[in-house]
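Translate sequence into structure tokens.
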Amino acid sequence: MALLKIADLYPNFTENIFGGDDVKSFSVYNHANDKIGSVYDIIVDETGRFRYLVIDTGFWIFGKKVLLPIGKASIDHDHERVYAHGLTKEQAENLPEYDEDMTIDYDYEERVRKVYRGVEYDDSKVYNQDVDAYDYDREPSLYAYQDTDDHQSLKLYEERLVANKESFLAGTVTIGKRVETETATVSVPVEKERVIVERTTPTNSTAVIPGKTAFSGEEVARIEVFEESAGIEKQTFVREEVSVRKEVEQETVSSRETVRREELDMETDGEVVVNSDR
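Result follows.
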């Protein structure tokens, strides 16, 4: 079975597998709680199962990169640490060095496994077996994933649609005033007095005593005549009032996306009773 770097199989492994944790930056400690390096990369098989952590030993062994089987490692996500169980400095020195440009074949893996098994590697043997002939499940001490305590736990992730709202400027409304002119007509009734002179001939005339009013030339009738003139002026009045306010209208925006969720696959070997209800 071919082995790959995790980024080659899962380009977004940080989010999709580790929930945002970049395990490749975690520090590595041994059983004595001494820092021995950091995680340089992760090696998985073509089915996506973890097989090795690539450990950069830093100053511990002068920057040598070696493989740590996943069964020998426990990951502490809270403290961003990886604990390498049983890895000694002598073992690390005996491990074949890892080069990221190399192809991990059966012979290289077997050299790594023999160091962790405590079996001396025989250079005279040629380990050219097919990689697919090896069954990782037969060596759980090397390839069974472990956590930092006596429990074995696996985080299952799922994707959810999270709706967020943000405000943006949709436009502006500007209200001002302008002056328009029009011709207005107003009518005002005015009164004018007119003098009307009426003449009548008496039917029963009597004699008038001379010397009083007749032929004296002094009798005058005087009457004052009035008329109204129109006075028109312009005055300003409030025609209407305009108020400006905003109202918030709500509408529902729906979106449909495809989300992923991880489900648990369980395999048992032998007569093992598993209670998975809790």
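Note: The first helix runs from residue 6 to 9.
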